[in-house]
Specification:
With about 675 residues, this protein is an alpha+beta fold. Among the domains are: about 70-200, Prolyl oligopeptidase, N-terminal domain (Methylamine Dehydrogenase, Chain H), CATH 2.130.10.120; about 200-295; about 420-495 and about 500-665, 3-Layer(aba) Sandwich (Rossmann fold), CATH 3.40.50.1820. The protein is about 25% helix and about 35% strand. The protein contains 10 helices and 35 strands. The strands form 7 sheets. Strands 28-29-31-30-32-33-34-35 form an 8-stranded mixed beta sheet, sandwiched between helices. The chain has a 7-stranded antiparallel beta sheet with strand order 5-6-7-8-9-10-11, with no helix packed on it. A hairpin with a 2-residue loop joins β8 (about 150-165) and β9. α1 packs across α10 and α4 packs across α5 (about 515-525). The longest helix is centred in the N-terminal third of the chain and has 51 residues, at about 15-65. The two termini are about 40 Å apart. This is Prolyl endopeptidase. One of its GO terms (cellular component) is Golgi apparatus. It is an enzyme of class 3 (hydrolase).
């Protein structure tokens, strides 16, 4: 975790150990002093935190049934999980008879949650992965189903797994956040396990997928910009995997299969956005890829499902969601608009290949998931009725475009209460992420609904570096374009204030993980735009982290941030926006940071350093001016449980309640 400063000469081993011990001691002392500091401060938020928790629990119980766990259909059998128990029911059983198969407690993992479920084609075996919140790694249990399910095998540190046949399972092992080995294990009379594939390049991560028609397993090796896929023929699971197309720098591709043809979702060709192509299984090289459908500009492909005669694309354009249904029979493409409030798709797992209906859920930060079905026969969208909980109708959704420094238009999604008067005096919570081509998370959260009910305005800024407008939107905000994301964020907040959505003294900024880069950078460049900021496991020390190649993610992250060790220009550029590097004595907003002691992705040392430096700069500024000396609250709450942005409902409830209590106090 703590590397020595470069260039210090170490004459003896003993001295080297001494320097490491002192840095470890100072780290432990810092940790301790921050924990004591938080214990002293937390009392002032306690009463409000408890009040908020009660409200959130009430909302959670009210809407919990909507976010029911995914159901897996196998003919007339339906498997589903609830509260750590695995159930089996019959699809057409009106009586609601349900068998309990087993619980996580039976497996000795009472505090774990089920992450992934895969059932063998003949339904004799079920493989599940269990994960506790303190670890990034999951444990895979293979259960032999029957009247009394029994544990057949336990495999530690597993990431993905799929059944090739009734009794052959392929899986990837995970170590230090990396997945590079694929194994095959058999449950026949001769049980054996063997290594099938190893990825040599540290920038690549391997996972396994089963095509919808169960004809092939795909071994997918992906870096942030390039992919390579190998096929395992499920009819001959012991044969060596076959290469589809050797990795080509900058070309990403994913594979599905239908009628002896591979359907290839890829960035190959111009423009470098996703296209659907196809090729014969026997000659799958790039030179044989034929275009089936190309996406329109500035469109984000969220997901794709292939059925026996149709393909559904789940798409996003400037915040609006829609479906494209491609018929393989008539070669027609039909576009279906979805309700304007919808911001996020949630697909149901494992729909059957030859079904005539595709089910999915739509949601937004303030709309609990609602189930919809698209019927291929009728060519129409059907809203599924559920137990009725009155869904808030007094929430208004607005989509805006802010003009950034280089004239690029940046989408913003805004939610506010329709009954709110004088919006310029209401508190505003701005959300940002802007990295890895990942969209800002806009699925339902109880606390967002609570804020709307209390008159807050919520704004989601879809800045460059994220994926909201397709692959070029990401490219335009990574490596030597990172500052564009910062300019976008500034433009978004300024437009919101101009249009009368709140004002700086009632504005707060929220970000998690890599979103901390842009949020922390804005705090340095334009602190007067916001009054408070809440960060969860933030990445705020970009330069130091990217200089340490021994950290698990540094090498693969070079495609996002650049490589400062090999490139002087890149080092200067990172230095120009890195939140930690650019702290200076000035009037900062108040900041609340939640970090995790066990976080493998964001080293705690960087967060500790950032907080120390920020406090000192704020104090230096306050002591050097006579302006009433407003000193911001800079608070670090270090969680001993939980891993990177991944907590149980109870822990995240506590975190969220503390963040909101802090914001309510800061924005009065």
């Amino acid at each position: 975790l703590l590397s020595r400063k470069k260039g210090t000469k170490i004459p003896s081993k003993r001295k080297q150990n001494a320097s490491i011990i002192t840095s470890e001691l100072s780290y432990k002392n810092l940790l301790k002093s921050e924990q004591e500091n938080w214990n002293d401060i937390s009392a002032r938020y306690k009463a409000m935190t408890e009040r908020i928790k009660e409200k959130l629990e009430e909302l959670h119980n009210k809407y919990a049934f909507n976010s029911g766990s995914p159901r897996i259909r196998f003919g007339e059998n339906v498997y589903f999980e609830e509260n750590g128990c695995m159930f089996l029911s019959k699809a057409d059983d009106g009586e609601g008879n349900v068998d309990i198969l087993f619980s996580t407690e039976d497996l000795g993992f009472s505090d774990a949650f089920i992450q992934r479920i895969r059932i063998s084609p003949d339904q004799r075996y079920m493989a599940i992965s269990l994960k506790t919140e303190n670890s990034e790694e999951a444990t895979c249990f293979i259960m032999k189903l029957g009247h009394f399910p029994v544990v057949e095998k336990v495999i530690p540190s597993v990431f993905s797994f799929e059944w090739a046949t009734n009794d052959v399972l392929y899986y990837t092992s995970q170590k230090n956040l990396k997945c590079q080995n694929v194994f095959m294990t058999t449950f026949t009379n001769q049980k054996h396990t063997k290594l099938v594939y190893t990825e040599q390049d540290a920038r690549f991560f391997v996972d396994i997928y089963c095509t919808k028609d169960r004809r092939f397993l795909t071994i997918n090796s992906n870096s942030k910009t390039t992919s390579e896929v190998w096929l395992v023929d499920c009819r001959h699971p012991f044969k060596l995997p076959a290469l589809v197309q050797a990795r080509t720098k900058g070309v990403i591709y994913h594979i599905e299969h239908r009628n002896d043809e591979l359907y290839i979702l890829t960035t190959y060709g111009e423009p470098a956005e996703y296209k659907l192509m196809k090729a014969p299984v026997a000659s799958s090289g790039m030179e044989n890829w034929q275009l089936v459908y190309a996406l329109e500009k500035k469109t984000k492909l969220v997901d794709l499902e292939i059925f026996s005669d149709h393909c559904i694309m789940f798409l996003k354009n400037a915040g609006h969601l829609y479906l494209n249904v491609i018929s393989f029979v008539s070669h027609s493409v039909q576009s279906i608009k979805l309700p304007t409030w919808a911001c996020e798709f949630e697909l149901e797992s494992h729909p059957e290949h030859n079904t005539s209906t595709c089910y999915f859920q739509l949601t937004s930060p303030v709309h609990p998931p609602k189930r919809f079905a698209y019927s291929f026969k009728e060519n129409n969208l059907i809203e599924q009725a559920v137990q009725e909980v009155p869904i808030i109708t007094n929430c208004h959704t607005t989509r805006l475009l802010a003009k950034s420094k280089d004239e690029t238009l940046v989408p913003i999604t805004v939610f506010h209460n329709m009954n709110s008067k004088e919006l310029h005096r209401k508190p505003l919570l701005v959300h940002v992420y802007g990295a890895y081509g990942i969209d800002l998370n806009m699925s339902f959260k109880e606390e967002k609904l609570m804020l709307i009910e209390e008159g807050w305005i919520l704004a989601y800024c879809h800045v460059r570096g994220g994926g909201e407008l397709g692959l070029s939107w990401h490219k335009d905000g990574c490596q030597h374009n990172k500052l564009k994301g910062l300019h976008d964020l500034k433009a978004c907040i300024m437009l919101l204030h101009e249009l009368g959505f709140s004002q700086p003294k009632y504005t707060a900024l929220a970000a998690a993980s890599a979103g901390g880069v842009l949020a922390g950078a804005l705090c340095n460049t334009d602190p007067e735009l916001i009054r408070a900021m809440v960060l969860q496991a933030p990445f705020v020390d970009v330069l130091n982290t990217m200089m340490k190649t021994h950290l698990p993610l540094t090498i693969e992250e070079q495609e996002e941030w650049g490589n400062p060790l090999a490139d002087e220009k890149c080092m200067k550029y990172i230095k120009s926006y890195c939140p930690y590097q650019n702290i200076k004595p000035q009037c900062y907003p108040s900041v609340f940071i939640t970090a995790y002691e066990n976080d493998q992705r964001i080293p705690l040392t960087g967060v500790l350093r950032y907080v120390q430096k920020l406090r000192k700069a704020a104090l230096d500024h306050a002591s050097g001016t006579n302006k009433g000396n407003w000193i911001p609250n800079i608070i670090l709450d270090i969680q001993t449980t939980g891993s990177h942005c991944d907590s149980s409902w109870e822990d995240s409830l506590n975190e969220v309640a503390r963040h909101l209590a802090f914001l309510n106090k800061e924005l009065e």
